């Protein structure tokens, strides 16, 4: 094969032959990094303006560059821009087109810049925007959860440990556990956004530049808090992507746990909820079936997001400073994670607001399986002064009686209870129904409806505050 005279027009000065096909296949990133076109052009517009302001390029070159970049933006958005794999990536595709449009002035745009800091900037801009979108999506989802929690602040359901019926709780309380989880996810994303709010452009290849650039101006114009402080770190850091992927992995874990519960709750055996038709499918052979496919897929997609995180951690772990081409592998992982998380969140949001709660079934289950046994033991401690261990033992005897009679605890008569312990009075019946049990758990953060409502109030205020600060 003769590759002579086909060297890359951007960096081919010292090369006498172009890349063989397989090299192009492994090297080119344009098939996926074309996603960064808007960020790339935005970064270039600001960079060119800064170069002009600092007298590094002329006003007329700046004007030509600006005009050309805007044409390119339009061409890409209209779908008439031809991307070329020969030009490797989005940065060189745009620059090559700029040269076609405005001639040699295009070559001045890359003054005091390298693709290393350029790609670091583009990806940061993109990830920042996506995190903001996900934060918005999470806020909406939290609002939906709060609406359901408020509706069901008094709806009884069995609480579980080891997936065994444990103590009665309210469905609102259970949903509020997810509000706490997704609320932490939200605050993690806000932290990530804050930490990554530093602008890398101007680090050039790795060492900075001898041109009198103004990185503070660039940072301001691109909406960053400040420029990065170390040029080597600027081009080699992908922590911001890793951190986002870790946030996404934790959020998807939470989505997966909720999916799992939705799947269990919607089985005919539990029958706690009915999913809307919109979020379930039928079986092609078994007419009676309604499958919770959306929940199952959200549960499964968690694996993709973990994969994205582990892929990039692995890419980064052995890299010497500063830039290495390995880092080009960051993009597909983060693109996939963002798309997957957005889709899962949106589907979960729909599922939660559409589902029907089978209140009667939940309440019935809340009372079966001796869920108020702890209340009984607590009463023996509080009212008769028994040590908890002894109260536990006596409660066990009462449960055995109930099992024998195939009835609930509150259905055993006082005289039967007194046979087991003579000091028991009728006062105990105030605590044996699931409703009374729930109402009595008034400790801060407990399941009593008044406490659940207190926490709903807290989250409504907190969400409103986050919304305000994001709009400020
Ligand atoms: N496409 C490259 C990436 O995504 C851009 C940076 C290339 N820099 C270089 N020196 N080859 O990482």
Describe the fold and architecture.
The chain is mainly alpha-helical. The chain is built from 18 helices and 6 strands. The protein has helices at residues 21-27, 30-33, 37-53, 59-78, 90-102, 115-151, 171-195, 215-221, 231-236, 239-265, 293-317, 330-354, 359-367, 373-384, 388-405, 414-420, 434-440, 449-471; strands at residues 156-161, 164-170, 198-199, 226-227, 273-274, 356-357. The strands form 3 sheets. Strands 1-2 form a two-stranded antiparallel sheet. Strands 3-4 form a two-stranded parallel sheet. It has a two-stranded antiparallel ribbon with strand order 5-6. Helix 11 runs antiparallel to helix 12. The longest helix is centred in the first third of the chain and has 37 residues, at 115-151. The radius of gyration is 31 Å and the shape is elongated. The two termini are 61 Å apart. The chain binds arginine (ARG). Residues 29, 33, 89, 115-116, 119, 323, 325, 327-328 line the site of arginine (ARG).
From the spread of the alpha carbons, the general shape counts as: elongated
Distance between the termini: 61 Å
Element order, helices and strands? HHHHHHEEHEHEHHEHHEHHHHHH
Portion in strands: under 5%
Low-pLDDT windows of residues:
1-5
Largest sheet: 2 strands, antiparallel
Strand order of the largest sheet: 1-2
Number of helices: 18
Mean pLDDT: 94
Oligomer: single chain
Ligands in the model, by name, code or SMILES, are: arginine
Our Rg estimate from Cα atoms comes to 31 Å
Task: Please tally the β strands and state the result.
Answer: 6
- Helix percentage range: 55-70%
Class derived from helix and strand content: mainly alpha
